[in-house]
Design a protein that fits this description.
globular; 35% helix; alpha+beta; four-stranded antiparallel beta sheet
Length: 79
């Protein structure tokens, strides 16, 4: 099965929270309300620290852009 790179996630247990799940390495879940991140992969592998910081910053930016695009798409839909 091929997974999308990003997925939206929410739960009735936290009704005021919205999450984006990144499904590729490094896998993470970001809470878009408070920017908390839960990592699912060990980030201490062979990558250099500076390189990993840049990668993470870019992925967080992409996650936010994904969320904004998804909101725009939902607004265009007739429900």
């Amino acid at each position: 099965m091929e997974l999308p790179r990003f997925l939206l996630a929410d739960t009735t247990e936290l009704p005021d929270e919205m999450f984006v799940l990144h499904t590729e390495y490094p896998r993470f879940l970001i809470n878009l309300v408070n920017d908390e991140i839960e990592w699912f992969d060990d980030l201490s592998k062979d990558e250099e620290e500076d390189e990993m910081v840049n990668i993470i910053a870019h992925l967080i930016e992409e996650a936010n852009k994904f969320y904004e695009k998804e909101l725009e798409n939902y607004e265009k839909e007739d429900f």
